[in-house]
Structures are given as structure tokens and as C-alpha cells.
Fold this sequence. Notes:
5 copies of one chain form a homopentamer.
Chain A: E1 32-39, E2 42-48, H1 55-58, E3 63-69, H2 74-83, H3 88-95, E4 102-105, E5 110-119, E6 125-134, E7 138-143, H4 151-159, H5 169-204, H6 208-238, H7 247-312, H8 328-349
Parallel strand pairs in A: 3-7
Antiparallel strand pairs in A: 1-2, 1-3, 4-5, 5-6, 6-7
Helix pairs in contact in A: 2-3, 5-6, 5-7, 6-7, 7-8
Amino acid sequence: MRSKKIRRPKAKVGAPPGTLIHVGERKADSTQIRLIDYDENRVHETTLEKIAPALNFRDRASVTWLNIDGIHDIRIIEEIGRHFDVHSLVQEDILNTDHRPKLEEHVDFLFMVLKTLRADAAGEVHTEQVSIVLGKGFVLSFQEAQGDIFDKVRERIRSDKGRIRKMGPDYLAYALIDSIVDNYYLVLEEIGDRIEVLEEELLTRPSPNTAQKIHSFKREMILMRKAIWPLREVVGSLLRQEPLVREETRLYLRDLYDHTIQVIDTVESYRDIIAGLLDLYLTSLSNRMNEVMKVLTIIATIFIPLTFLAGVYGMNFHYMPELEWRWAYPAILAIMAALGVGMLVAFKRKGWF
Amino acid sequence: MRSKKIRRPKAKVGAPPGTLIHVGERKADSTQIRLIDYDENRVHETTLEKIAPALNFRDRASVTWLNIDGIHDIRIIEEIGRHFDVHSLVQEDILNTDHRPKLEEHVDFLFMVLKTLRADAAGEVHTEQVSIVLGKGFVLSFQEAQGDIFDKVRERIRSDKGRIRKMGPDYLAYALIDSIVDNYYLVLEEIGDRIEVLEEELLTRPSPNTAQKIHSFKREMILMRKAIWPLREVVGSLLRQEPLVREETRLYLRDLYDHTIQVIDTVESYRDIIAGLLDLYLTSLSNRMNEVMKVLTIIATIFIPLTFLAGVYGMNFHYMPELEWRWAYPAILAIMAALGVGMLVAFKRKGWF
Amino acid sequence: MRSKKIRRPKAKVGAPPGTLIHVGERKADSTQIRLIDYDENRVHETTLEKIAPALNFRDRASVTWLNIDGIHDIRIIEEIGRHFDVHSLVQEDILNTDHRPKLEEHVDFLFMVLKTLRADAAGEVHTEQVSIVLGKGFVLSFQEAQGDIFDKVRERIRSDKGRIRKMGPDYLAYALIDSIVDNYYLVLEEIGDRIEVLEEELLTRPSPNTAQKIHSFKREMILMRKAIWPLREVVGSLLRQEPLVREETRLYLRDLYDHTIQVIDTVESYRDIIAGLLDLYLTSLSNRMNEVMKVLTIIATIFIPLTFLAGVYGMNFHYMPELEWRWAYPAILAIMAALGVGMLVAFKRKGWF
Amino acid sequence: MRSKKIRRPKAKVGAPPGTLIHVGERKADSTQIRLIDYDENRVHETTLEKIAPALNFRDRASVTWLNIDGIHDIRIIEEIGRHFDVHSLVQEDILNTDHRPKLEEHVDFLFMVLKTLRADAAGEVHTEQVSIVLGKGFVLSFQEAQGDIFDKVRERIRSDKGRIRKMGPDYLAYALIDSIVDNYYLVLEEIGDRIEVLEEELLTRPSPNTAQKIHSFKREMILMRKAIWPLREVVGSLLRQEPLVREETRLYLRDLYDHTIQVIDTVESYRDIIAGLLDLYLTSLSNRMNEVMKVLTIIATIFIPLTFLAGVYGMNFHYMPELEWRWAYPAILAIMAALGVGMLVAFKRKGWF
Amino acid sequence: MRSKKIRRPKAKVGAPPGTLIHVGERKADSTQIRLIDYDENRVHETTLEKIAPALNFRDRASVTWLNIDGIHDIRIIEEIGRHFDVHSLVQEDILNTDHRPKLEEHVDFLFMVLKTLRADAAGEVHTEQVSIVLGKGFVLSFQEAQGDIFDKVRERIRSDKGRIRKMGPDYLAYALIDSIVDNYYLVLEEIGDRIEVLEEELLTRPSPNTAQKIHSFKREMILMRKAIWPLREVVGSLLRQEPLVREETRLYLRDLYDHTIQVIDTVESYRDIIAGLLDLYLTSLSNRMNEVMKVLTIIATIFIPLTFLAGVYGMNFHYMPELEWRWAYPAILAIMAALGVGMLVAFKRKGWF
Lengths: 353, 353, 353, 353, 353
């Protein structure tokens, strides 16, 4: 996860608000429009080329879910905006993938921006933006690229599992957000595993590389936090949205709210744990430095004085009476040995090894 | 206490809410259902195989306490849910042992999730989830495994000690939570003792191992905090639950609330103290490094110049007049001794030893 | 961005409030007064020498925008104050460029102080103060120097792009603030790029210089934060300003409010990231120190004992039987080699290289 | 101040609430009961053996102050509880000396737990618990041991100094709390003095011992904070206790509230200062390490190359033409001197000494 | 600024509240009482010996400002208290110079405690306490010593500059507080300058002394913060004091409130900057340590092996065939040169110099 820049392009700065410009990487080749219309008795599912046919479903009593994968095509967003009375500022927000999660109340609908997380093969976490519009009888969802995040919801609608077919569009919106939060669990679990691997590595074979890994974890946490924190507020205020959110759905939203707090809690705990890992790494660095220094000091402190002694008797003065003594050489060797052993004992006593 | 992952299993992600799946380690072999029904005059205690017989007690004026040890058996939870009108989302929460402590108000009952702590022989702290449902005339409690945490409450009911037999199910719920919080005191006391031992070790014989111990304490505190913090809110909002919680029980709950805050306070103090220990450890590392360096420097600084001097008079130049002087050798030895002593004095003055 | 002093000049201290003194650097040579008066059908744009002619436009139904570049000329500010009923304390605030962003409600108008950011060629960020007065039918804006920050707004008015010509002066004020916030995006994007370059540098070739760069980033963030944080409150309370801010503009302000929070979020993330960079730098310093120490220790630990051995056989004692042995020299060389290799192996085993 | 454990004894865990067990060290040999009964005209002071005689004073219009020193005697507490209608939970709290400061409102009385601080000869700070019950016409105070903390209040009552004899029991309670807070000032002043001594020591002759002193200061601050922080809330809510606290006493309580905040402020400042001391100590450690390393490096860097040179001319090759040159020896000495001086100059230029 | 002790003298502890004792250093030789009485048309200014004459002015319609320099004379404070109906607790607060800034509402007057800052020649910051009593028609101000801080206000009253003569005593109180806050700007500017000098010093020639300077800055900030923070609340609640503070003064107080926040902001920024300086200093220490170690390692690593080689050929073995070879000496010199250069190249490649 690179330091995500705020990508509001220079062309956009100063442009009148409501100007539709796609901001962000283009992640899908084409835009796919999928419509599911259902009530307790019946499911109708089609893939559309244009928005117009969707209008037939809009005002029926059934729940209409229009999912758009790929948001780079401005005309489609505009067309939807026109047909479903979505304000141009909201259209702009759908196109701009750099928003933080939020909920906006409009007269006829609620607009939510959410972030999905995805860990790639290398373990790097990427975010994608999902926008959801909850209106009377319909839900619009916009994804940056084709994803499988809503597949299980579709499955439940088709197979009439759970109560989804019996409930209204507010429950569908809940189900969509819930599947996003469920996804956070997966990503967090993966990160939790990687933190444990890192911790193991730190305790057994720390390397300079470890510091960089800790650093990149920290960055991921900073950015995940930015993506997840505001969600609490989003779900919290969704709870209070009468009449679009009905009493019977509220219980589920409260449950979702608990999950959101749990996710935030976990991110915070991970931050604390990662900070602890850095401390541990620095401590282990200091410990090893200490060990290295001790080895050097022991060796140098023992041999430097002995070398000096040898140097003294290597001097070439003519008058050095000791040189001629018979036992001088063995005596000096004995003295040297005594000195060396004495020092070793002294270091041992200091607890240096 | 390993980094507790959020264990929402992959199978569960995207499943409709209210799907009953047991999440967590299976800690008990079988599920044990214990029923205690009591009023001021009488106690009835049985172990049940099925839930159905419990229904006879449900609507009596007496207090019915149904305790379930072992929550992996989904059918039992479902059966209880059906008989006691417990919503499927609540059943799901009972089965999922990864919840944070919370209190949920439902129309007819209160649902609480709590965490018990247990320190094993090695001093590692484990958490277990306890769910409590407080309804009109009954209390349901769910434990992950058979534990002795509620034994003293049972004892008090049987022996009619204290006022428990005179009070309603709200007082029973209070007594259960109180025994959980009492248990925190034990665990915290044990941790307090271990922190003191560690501190002692740090001041007398620090080892690289110490850093890892401090680190693991830090992690335990992070996770204990996560388990205990939300309890304050749980007890706090329990205080406001009319009519299920009666005026006469409120005094006891306020007392419990004080205990909860005291426990949180202690956890926070421990965190501060542990942070201080890490600082102290790093400081002691630096101090020892300093000492090692001083020894090396003193030895090297004294003997390196002397060795150089000896080296000079070990050179083999033909013309080196000093070599022939009569007193050159004693003189050079004297100079060397003077140099060495001079340096020692200089280091002494600098306060290096 | 040098440590911005509070430049309230000594002359000013103790002066009666409302005394008009220009506080700050004089950034413009002359003061330029530009007037744009527009409604849905018509735009009138002139450059004025004096304020008086502007009065003709003041009470018309059209929107009058008076923009003053260069605020060092006290008389002009005074004249405007007189003609537009702007309190002397407000005039004083316009002249004092050391204010933090704020919104003041007055009986007839709103007064806002904002900060623009500008990154110069060397990447240093400078702030400039913009004051906006929003009255009934008119907007006054004051800039420290001639800038191009409002050019796009002018362009939109002239070319009737977007809805600006159809809306009132509150929308114009919104457009001005929006263009300031848009500008923050540019500056933040630039800083984000520079942080990435720094991070790259840190990972590949850290230098003592890096620390200073991190330090100067930190300072910039401290000061940017000071400039941007209060903006949230300004826009937030602007939302509640009836009747000067009309319902139809409120939607745009809410959008602006989101942008403001996003900008603040980004500044906070950058602060965290920069703090992380410093940690990483210090860790890499320790790592390199460790590496240097290991090289020294390996070399010294291998050669110091060998040199001692050589020294022993360089002594000049008459009676040193080994010296005469035939194989002594090759033997001692072999011993030395064995010692050296042995030590290398030992270090290898310790994982030192 | 050792890490204060939560001493809820194992016997107590799980016991019914309201069970009277003395928790804490037994600090007094016997329990002393002192009664002072006074009104504007008269003071009656006795030492009691039993509680019963106190009942005569209870319902008179005069103010009755019953002070109990030593709380290990459960029967006395029980007796008081019975006579003065004090709930068994409150009795339990009086006996348990591990409470944090708090105020409890009961129907007929207020119950307060407070902590006194006492610095012993070695400068270690100890806490003691004082419980105060403020009822209609009487004040009960409980101390762990006989102390002189309330002596001045007694003195004022006897000698009719100040207004104490003219006011009600609420003023007496205020006077008691005030004398506890006054005592904090003494302890904080003493700690302030010790911090200054430590700071002086740190700047002039830091020793490894200093780190431990800083650490023990930190711990004391953690525990003092725990004792003092909640006091703010206690006094704050005491202010709102009508009708037990009368209007005329409120002014004095507000004054007391200010003092409490000032004490908390000081504790916080001390924490900051102590944190600063640790930074300063670590910095001074690094500085001294740097100095030590420089000395070593200067000496080694100068003499190691010179020693090498001497070694070269100490080699025994037969063909070494320089050895025979007439001026070789003085020349080599000159070269060595030049090298040494050159290096010294280089280090000087680097600013190493 | 030494660690300011809480100087509540031991004599005072336990004394009845309202006992008048002067707490603090005696900063003035004598007490000076200055009276200014003014309305729109007239100014009367005298220096008084006693308080009595001031009473003539008290109940007039004009504004009466009584300024007392030097508060050690308890009788004067008492006299004022008697004549102006100032409660004895307030008198006590005036005499005790260790209060934190606060505002107290009394029935007939407002009592404020404020702190002035003064930087002495050595750059150390000292605080002094100013107490202000704002009553109906009069303002009393108490300073520890004669100061020039209110001179400009006097000047404005005399010369009828600004609107001060047209406004009531609330505006006078505002003017006094404003001149105190203006003074903060001066002190902060000076500190800002000193921080820049320190930063410059840190980047060009850091010395162990620098750490102590940073430390003393930190302490000053801790204590300044303690003095300035509560001011926000004081001015904030002054804004709400009807009827003593009139509507027309409120605008000025809001302006003052902005200034207060700006001052607090600046103190906070300085704290952050100073914390950054310490980091920078420690980093520069580590950098220099690294540099020192590299020099040592390069020199030692090059010459230690060479010295060993020389040592080998300095051995006195009889049988050392190389010694007799013709080109052995030049060859060994060449080998040594090659070794040395090779190592230098290796270090160069590692980027060590």
C-alpha cells in the first residue's frame, strides 16, 4: 500500500462543483450493469447495456438492485443520475474514488461511500471504493471494478436463503455493507497471521529487513484506519435514518455496528502490537550491539597488554639484563598466561560471558 | 496469550445474518445444562438432558437460572432460543466467542456478552466468553467450557447466604457479573506479582530475555484492556435498564460499577508501569554498553601508545644512538610507567572509574 | 517554512483595540481593487482606483464581489469598512495576517479568515491569509498579494459555467473557499510526492541529511495543521448561518465540509507516516552501527591475538629454544592460520556475517 | 511505593456483597473512637469505648463528629452501621482500604472515600484511606490508623477559630477534606524538592543509579495520580448535593475544587518533568558514550599506523637498505611525529576535541 | 524558570479557610495604591495612602479603577475587602500568588486570577499573578509588584484614545486582560526567536550543552502551558457574564478569546517543535557516533592486519627462508600496499566514506 496520494487531478482544481470527472485509476475495461429485481415470490436478474430498461422496475413494489461495476464511464453515471434523481454532487462523489467513508442524507435517498479492502498475493492491502444509493424501493451500488464481494448476497437472493427476500431495500443495503465488513475480517485475519510470522522472525532471526517490514505494517495500519474509522459513524447514523431504514432492519444494523467497532478495536490493537514489535526490534539490536562490543572488549583487553609486554622484550637496547637470564623467557610466558587468565576471571565475575 | 485473531471463519463470511455457526475453539467435550430454580423458601437444582423440562419453570414466580457449559452444540442453543424467544441474531452472538463485551436491549430481555480471564500455570492469560440473558423471571448463562467461576453463587443460593434468595433475577445477573469481576481481581493480582518479580529481575540481573518478557506483558495488557474496557459501558447501561433491573438491585450495580472502574484503572496503571520497565531496561542496556566501552577505551588508550614506544625501539636501524646508552632501557621503562600512570590519573579525573 | 513567529509588533502591544496597523510582511507593491458584479443575465467587471464607485453596486439585487489584492494600504481598508459597515475590529483582523482561520458572526455580515498554502520552488510551504466578508448581496475578499487562486472562479462567472451565476453571494463565498481547499489538495499531493521520494532515499541511501529533511517535514506538518485544523469549524459553522447562507447552498457546503475533513485526515496520516520515517531512519542508523562494529570486531578479534603471537617470537631473550627448531616457523604460521580460520568459523556460526 | 496490588483477598472473591471483611494491612493496634459535639456556644469532646453513648448526640441540633482511628475491628463498624443506618455495602467499603476515591449518594447520607498521602523518611509515598459519612447533623470519619491530619480541625473547633462552630456538618466535612488536600500540598512540595535535587544530580554527576530514581519517581506519580484524579469528581459532585450541602458551604467547596484542580495540574506537570528528566538522562548517556568513543578513536587512529611503521622497520629481512642509512632513524621519527601531529590537526578540524 | 513549587506554607496547612496569609515571594518594597476615576468627560487620577478616600468614588456613575501594586500588606487587602464587600476567601486568593487562572462569579462582582509572563535578561520566563475584581462601577486590580503592563491602558484613559472613556468598567477589565495577553505575544515572540537560534545551533554545531537547553525549553513550555491554558476558560466564561459584562463589550471579548486560542496554539506548536528538536539532537548524536566509529574501524581494519604481517617478519626464528630473499622486503611492502588499498576500496564500495 503506497502512500495514497489525494489524486484530485489538476484539471479538476477550480472547476465548478458537480463537474463529472473520473478520479482514480481505471480498474475495469468495460462497465457492467447488473439488475436484480425481487420480492418474496420472484427474482428477475438481467445484465443491461443501457440504464433506460431499469426504469421499468424503479417504481414497482419489488426491490430493485442495480449494480454497476466500473465507474470510469461518465455517461452511464450521468444517465443513472438523471433517471434516479441523483444530485450532480453525488454523481461527482461516485466518480471520485478518493473519498473517505461517509453517509449523506438527501431528500429522497441516502448516499453512502464505503471502502473495501483486498490483500494481494504479496500481502499488500489495496482499497477500493463502493458507493451505495438507498432510495425508496431501489438500491444502486457502484464498484470500481468487477468483484466477487457481493456474490454471496446475490446467491442468497436467488436461493431465498435467510430473510432477504422478505425484507425491503434497506435490508439489502445492510446486506451489502455487512458483506464489506465481513471482508474486513478476512483481511484482518490475514494481517494478524502475517504479524505473528513477523513476531516469530523477530524473536528467532531478526534482520535489518525486519525493520522495513514493521515500517510497512505501520503504514498499512495508518491507511486501513483511515478507511475503517469513519465507518462507525456511517453505520451509526444509518441507524437513525427514518423512514428509509425500517424498524425491523435496525436490529441487524445494531449487530453490524458491533462488528464495525470490533474491527476498529482490532486495528487499534494491531497498531499497539506493531509499535511493540518495533520496540522489541530496537531492543534486540541494542542487545546484539552489546554482545558484539563485549567480544571485542574481552579480546582487546586481554591481548593488548600482553602484546605490549612482548613488545618491551623485543626492544633492541644493548643493556637489557633480563634478556640474558636463563628463566626469563618461561617466566615471562607464565606472567602473560597469568595476566590473561586473571582478566578472563575478572570479566567472568562481571558477568560478561 | 497469542495475538488473538478474529476468527470469523471463511465459511461464515457472506452468510445470511442469524446463521448459527459455532465460532471459536471447542473447549468442552459435551454440553452440560444445569437448572436452579429458587425463591425465598425453596431451591430446586437439576441437571437436564434437554431444554424442554426447563419450560415448566419459566413462567413461575420463582427465579429460574439455566446455565449451559459448552456452546458448540448448535441444536441446544437453537432450542433454548425457540423456547425463551431469543432472537436468532442473539443466538449467533452466543455461538461466536469473538465478541467484545456488550449489552443489548431487546423487547423482553437483556443480552450481555462478557469475558472471563484465566491465567494458566505458565502465567499466560486466556479469555473465555460468557453470555448472559436476563429475562422476566429467568437468567440464561452460557459458558464456553465447564468452569468453577459461578460455583460460589450456586453455594450462596443453596445455603441462603446473603440476600440472593430474597431478590429477583436481576440480582442473580448482578451476582454472576460480580463473580466475573471478582475473578479479574485475582488475575490482576497475579499479574501484579509477576510484574514485581520482573522488576526485581530487571534491577538485579537483566538479560536479553527480559525484553521479551516485557513485550509479552505488553501484549497481554493490550488484550486484557480490549476485554475489560467495554465492561464499564455494559455495567453502566445495565444500571439504567428499567423495569428489568429493579431499584433495590441498582445499589449493588453501582458498587459493581466502582469495581469495574477500579479494575480498568489498575490495567491502565500496569500499562504505564510496563512502559516504564521497558524504558528502564533500555537505559540499563545503555549503561552497560557505556561501561564496556569505558573498559575497552581505558585499556586501549593506555597500552596502544606504550606498544608504539616499544615498537620504536624494536626497529633495526643501524644508527640508533639511544640503544647503546647505559640507562636507556630503565629510562624508557620509567617513561612508560609514567605515561601509563598519567593516563590512569587522567581517566580517574574524568570520573571514568 | 520557518518557525512562524507571532508578529504582533511591539508598537501594537497595548494599543487600543481596533487600531489599524498592518501586521505582516508587505507582499504586494500596490493595492489592486477588482469589482465583479453579476446576475443571471449580465457580468460587469472593472478595476477600481477608489472604493466609492463600488457603492453603486452595493445595494443592487445583483451579486457584487469586491476583491482587494494587497492589504498594506490602511486607508483603503478603512474606506471599505466605512462604506460596507464593517466594524473596526474586523478591519484590524483583515490587516493582521497572523490570525488563525475563524468565522465571526456579525449582525449584517459574516467574517471569515482563511489561509492559503503555496509551495515554492524549493518545496517550502508558505501560508497567506485570505479574509472574506459575506454580506447581503456582496462579498468582499482580501488577499495579501496578487494571486491566481480565484482566477478559475472569475472564469466561471464570466463564461457562466456551472450554476454560479444563478446563485447568490453565499454560493460565491462557497466557491472562493472551495478554490482555497482545492489548492490544499495540490500542495498535499506535492508533499505526498516528496515524502515518497524521501522514503525511497531512506530505504536505499540514507544520509545524515535525511534526518534534517524529516525534521523539516515535521515542522511543515505542525504549521500546516495549525492552518488547516480550524477550517473544519469554520465550514461547519458556516453551514448553520441562516439567513445569509441559503438552503440551496448548504448542500455544496456539506460537500466542502467533507473535503475539509479529508484534507485534515491526510495531514494527520502524513504526520504519522513522517513519525514512522524517523523511527525507520533511527533503526537504519542502529543497523549500520551494528554492521560497522561487527567488521571492526571481526578484524580486531582475529588479528590482535595473532599479532601477540608474532610479538612473542620477536622477543630478544637469549634463551628461547623454539627459535632454533627447524620447523618452528612453518609450525607457528600453521597455528596462526588455524587460529584465524577457527575464529572466522566461530563468527560465522554466531551469524555475524 | 511498591506496585500496589489490588488486595481483595481470595477468601472474599465470590462472597456475597456486603460481607464485612477487613481488606488491607492492619495499621493500628486498637481502635480509638473520638466524639466531638459542638454548636456555636459549646464543645463537648470525649473518647468512647463503645458506640452506644454516641447515639445521645445523634439527633441533637448540634454537630456530632465521630472519628474512628483503626478500622480492623469489624464489630465496631457494624455497630456504627446499625446505629447510624449505614448500608452494609458502605460498611464493606469502609473496611476495604483498596478503593479509589468516590462519592456515593444514599437516601439519608453521603459516603465519601478519600486517600491521604504520607511521605516516609526515605521519601517513599504511602497512601491511607479515609472514609467520611455526612448525614443530617453528624459526620463519621474513619482512618486506617491514628493520624494527626485532622488535629488542626479539632483545634479550630475547640478554640472557635474561623467560622467552623457557626456552620453545619457539611462545613465540617468540607474542613476534613480540605485538610486532606492541604496535606497533598505538603507531599507535593516535598516531591518537588526531591525532583529538583535529582535534576541537579543529573546535570552534574549522573550515575546508573539516577535511572532507577527516575523510574521510582515515575511509579510514584502513576500511583499518586490514581489516588488524586478521582478527587476532582468527588468534590465536583459534592458541590451539587442538596440539601445535605448548604448554599453557604458551597463557596468553600468551590475554593476546594480549585485547589484540587491545582493539585492535579501539579501532578501532571511533575509527570511531564520526570519524562523530560529521563530523556535528559538518556541524552547525557549518549553524550558520554560519544566522548568515550572519541577518545578511543583519536588514540587508536594516531598510534595504530605509527605502530605499523615501527613494525615495518622491526622486520628482520636481510636486504632492507633503509636500515643502513645514516639519517634513516631521525627521519622516520620525524615522519612519525608529522603523521601524529597531522592527525591531531585533522581531528581538531572535525571538532572532535 | 525553576520547577515552581506549590508554596502553600506549612503554617497555612490546616488553618481555617479565609485566613489571610501572603503566600509567595515579596516582590515589592511598599504597596502603591493608584486610583483612576473617569467618565466620558473627565479623568481623575491620584495615588492614595489609604483605601478610605476611594470610597467616595465607589458609588458614582463614573468608572473607578483602583490598582494595587504589592500585595504583601495584608491590612490593605483586608481594608479593600471590607469597603468593597469582597469575601474573605477572595482576599485569601488575592494574597496567594500560587493560583492557576480562574474566574469566580460572586453575587455582586466577578473575581479573576491571571498570570503575566516576563522574560528576564537571561531569557528565563517568570510568572506574576494579577487579580482583577470587576464590580458595578469599579475595577480593582492587584499586582505582585509595580509593573508597566497597564501603563498603556492608563495612557489611553488619560488621552481619551480609542473608546475606553465611553465604555463601562467591563471594558476596562477587558482592556486590562487584553494588555496581559498582548504581553504573552511579546514573550512568545522572544521564545520563538530563541528556539530558532537553538535550531540553528543544533544544525551547525551541536554540543552536549544543547540538550540541556532543549530540556530547559521543555520545562518552560510545561509551566507556560499551565499558566495560559486555563485562560481560555476564563475569557470564555467572562463572555457569558450578564449583566456585569455588557453586550457592547462582548464583541471585544470574542476578539480577545480568539487571541487567547492563538496564544495556546502557539505554545502547543512550540512544544511540538521542541520535541522535534530533541529527536533531531539525538539523531545527530547517533550520526556522529556512527561517523566516529567508521573512522576507527577503517583505520583499525586497515592497519591491524598490516601490523600483524610486519610482526611476523619481526620474529626471530633461525629458520625463516623469506628473510634472506633479495626481493622479499620490496615484495612484502608491495603486498602491504595492495592490502591497504584493497581495503580502502572495499570500504569505499560500502559507502563508508
